[in-house]
Every structure is written in structure tokens, then in C-alpha cells.
Amino acid sequence: ARKRYDQTLAELETAGRQNAEFLSNVSHELRTPINMVLGISEVILEKNLPADIRNGMESLQMAGKRLSSQINNMLDYTEIVEGTLTSAEEPYRITSILNDIVTMAAAQNNRHHLEMVFDLDPKMPSVLIGDAEKISHVLKILLENSITPVQQFNYTTGKNSTDMTMVIDAMDILYSGNVDGFCLITSDSDFTRLAMRLREANMYVIGMGESKTPTALTKACNKFIRLNLISEQALSAAAGDIADASKSNTVTSISEIEDAIIAIVNENENNGKPTYMGEIGSRLNSRFTDFDVRNYGYTKLMTFIRDKCPKLEISKENSSYNVSVLEANAVVLHDKIIKMIEKNGGTIDNLSVIYDYLKKKYPDFDLKDYGYSRISSFLRSMPEIVVKGNAVSLKDAAAKAKAKK
Q: Quick one: average pLDDT of 140-153?
């Protein structure tokens, strides 16, 4: 049995060498005419040609390049089998190779709306030593196989068979154990259970879709981004407007966000620590999967809080920003009212203006909490203010007005 095994192995090795030798001879015989076809086509394409002839020559050249690539593959295979494959050790620039790859793939990328991005380590030397031709060949093969088209037949009309294929692929990727998260680009509620299943496996799930996406799917993801709102905001910003989706029922209401921030601030105060802007952003993203200030027409969380959350105030502490809840105590109200009257030249003709300002600034403001039933009585309790009829003024301003008379 051993003798028969050795004999069979020797026959296979001989057949392999003969096969490699045959492929090598064929490859060399084909290379000369193919190079001639490529060279002549290149010369002809440099001339002014009618459109139909140019298209034909370009197709001929493309076919020649594909055949030349296959011949190179055959030669590499035969050299590997024969053990004669060698690599050159010459200086080359990796950027030149990558530029060739980008140029080669440009037409295909544009046709499929794809973008090719190379991430090079800044520490990589500009000149390397190696076989530039073989490295370029390997990169081209990797590029050709980087995106694999998948066709899923629609066996039944009225059904989207691709959805099931995507779920199966997601499960295959999940069980491979090689990823930490998933990105689901869909507005279809059918993927809600998939998002939940992935999160059960401790995967971080990012969802991307339109405003019409059902709430169930947005809540099932760790983070959900409404792409159309971001696009609309970018277009509005370019036109000088602010896109605001806060009135839409597809995003979390501003009042709910403000209440959540107040709860965070109160919790931190009970624990004796301040609340910084970074923590607010992080905890809002964790609580509301769809939270993004761009949904409300803003680019910065700090500006959003200042404009949309009247119960909160922001103060700068060194290089950080601290968020706190506005307290409507008597001292604070006194200072706010004085500053308001000063901004109006020392006199306000209508008491209701001050009352409306206080209610807007402090939604929980109630005169009864300070022992008053009327805003006029509340203002008269302040020594710097004079109330006459429905008008309010500072004492200095009132004295000046009286002197003029």
C-alpha cells in the first residue's frame, strides 16, 4: 500500500509539473500577440476617430487588458508550482501604486456611486523596497473581489425576498464573532426584531433611515439617525434658513429632552457633583436613540440648550461648560427685573411685559409663592422700583422724569 501511495504521489507531481510547464509555454506564446494588440490599440486611440470606431477600439483594449491580466495569473501559478517564483527588491513609491489603482477603478466607482478611500499610516516611509509589480497585482485582485454582488430571486410576487437574505447575512456575521456592531440602513419596521436580537448579543446597533421610520425600530437601536432631516438641514443652512424638525412627531419633543436634562442635573446635585456639557450629551444619546441636535436645526448642544431650554442655564468653568437648573428665588428675580427695566431705558409702560417675561423665563413662577396675588404688589416690594398706574420705572429714572416736568 505504501509503495502504491508513493507511486501515485510521484505521478501526480509529474502531472502537476507538466501542467505548469504547458501553462507557462502557452502564457509566453500568448503574451507577445496580446502586447501587440494593446500597443496598436493605444496608438490608434491617440488619433481622431469617429465615435463608433473609438468605442470599438476601447472595448478591444479593455478585453486585451483583461486577457493580459489572466496570462499574468497563469505565469504566477506556474512559477509557484515550479518553485521559481521570485520577488524583485527595488525601490518604489506606494502612493504611485495606489494612484494607479484609483485611476483603474474610477469608472466603476462612479458608475456604482462608490468612493475609494486609502488610509495610510503617516509614519510609513515614502519610498519602500520590494516588488512593485506584484504588489500592484495583488491590490488589483483584492479590489476586484472587494465587493461581491449577490442576487436573490423573487420567487413570490409582492414579497421583498432581499429582506430575508439580509437577516441571514446579519446572523452569519454575528456568529462569526469578528464584529462589535452593526449598521442597519432601513426604514422598514420588519427589521425591529433583528435590531433587538443583535443588541441581545451585546452588539452596538446604529440605525439609519427616514423620518417615517416607526418608533419601534428607532427605539430598538442604540442610535438612530434620520438621514433626510440632516440632508434638509444642510440644504436649509446653505439657503440661510434653519431646518427645525421639533414640530414633527417623529423626533423626541424638546420638553421631554429638557425634563431629562433637569433630572440629570438634580441627580448630580444630590450626589454633590456638577453637570458638564459632555455628560449631558452622552446621557441624552443613551436615553433617546434618535437624539441629535441637528434634528432641531442646531449643530451644537450648548446652543440648543440656550435657545430651547428656558429652565436651564449654562456657565463656563475654566475650559468646561456647566449646566444647572434656573432657580426662581427672590434675589434672582430681583436682579432679572432690574436688568430688564434698565435695558428698556429705566421705564416699562406695561406691567404685563414683566410678568410675561418671568413666566417665559421661569415656567414654574407663581406670585403666591412669594406672598403676593398681583404683579404690581410684588414689584412695589422692591425698593429700587416705582409703580405708577400700569407703568414701572427705576427710582432714579422716575426722579429724572419728575425733575424735567
A: 67
